[in-house]
Prior knowledge:
There is one protein chain. The chain is α/β, with parallel strands linked by helices. It has two domains: about 1-145 and about 305-360 and about 390-400, Rossmann fold, CATH 3.40.50.450; about 160-305, 3-Layer(aba) Sandwich (Rossmann fold). Helices cover about 35% and strands about 20% of the residues. The protein has helices spanning about 20-35, 50-55, 65-70, 95-105, 120-135, 160-180, 200-205, 225-240, 275-290, 300-305, 310-330, 355-360, 380-385, and strands at about 10-15, 40-45, 60, 110-115, 140-145, 190-195, 215-220, 245-250, 260-265, 270-275, 290-295, 335-340, 345-355, 395-400, 400. Strands 3-2-1-4-5 form a five-stranded mixed beta sheet, with helices on both faces. The radius of gyration is 22 Å and the shape is elongated.
Amino acid sequence: MATSRSRKNAFYAQSGGVTAVINASACGVIETARAHRDVIANVYAGRNGIIGALTEELIDTGKESAAAIRALRTTPAGAFGSCRYKLKSLDKNRREYERLIEVFRAHDIAWFFYNGGGDSADTCFKVSQLSQSMGYPLQAIHVPKTVDNDLPITDCCPGFGSVAKYVAVSALEASFDVRSMAKTSTKVFVLEVMGRHAGWIAAAGGLIEDHGIPVVVLLPEVEFDEKKFIARVDELVKQHGFCTVVVSEGCHHPDGTFLAEQGTRDAFGHAQLGGAAPVVANMVKQALGHKFHWAVADYLQRAARHIASKTDVKQAYELGAAAVKLALKGHNAVMPTIDRVSDAPYRYKIGVARLADVANVEKFMPPNFITKDGFGITEACKRYLRPLIQGEDYPRYKDGMPVYATLKNVAVPKKLPAFELR
């Protein structure tokens, strides 16, 4: 058990695309660790994620005041820097994993908290396996985060509730604009949102239907059929005078090619996407002749802390805190989860999942969440989504602008020779 050890240090890192609430998880980790100073001496953060561990660029969070750490709860993005850097398999790149253990050993680190999505869960699991094989006592706990909401087992992922709220609100407001102008101007508005393989974010745009807005939702789970899509848009415009389309960046043709594929790939090997909205909008223009406008939510959707979901902020903090508590109880290679108890009233509890069951598994929209025509979301999906966007948790404002924290990020002195990333 961890509590039988002398005081050791913890390592925390942020990975992948940041969110409006990932810093709330960081706050949960650090504040909970500080409440157990008899066991956890300090929390070192990786500068720019896992790269910070490999290059021994550690940040001493102990140099930050309690107020500064508390302010992370209302600050978007990654306070310590994140990265898109996927460690290869142990067989192909054992060198990097051994370097991690070397750095952890040099800085007396006994706990590894990795805050990220599916690729991060995989890395966290591999590190836990290697530490055991090398005989180094390390507890690796994954802290879930992803706007895509595609981690398995957990009911939802921190970051998703806030991006869902932003997309739903933005789609609603833009739709009111289009409705005002539809008689003589724009009749179709297309909003492109994130979601490579899973359509959770686009699904959130479907909530505007309850506000009288005719909407078409294009999901990665449904193969794109241009003829059926054009027919549906035509039907809605004839009936209402306008319509809104919310398209996931991962929407694809029957042969698997993305509407928005650019032919390039990111650091994780994923196809680089961007441009589904203009593709879809031009289809409508060519087929129906309607004037259109389109927008790509891009970073705006995941950075919008000013309109974050209160539920999401709360859960992000709780899961960060839960990760530390699990480690102190002796858990290893696990991830704290949100376990939904009921929809209305919304109730949940904090659970735990084995990383062996989480790594490299994606959670997609279930069939009963998608309407039979493939262009909308069902009432079951709305019951799932509504609690996750509930509540407002506004940051403090000064001179009309939100006040966000910038940490000092004091470096921990290095002890090892330089390491070259390959």
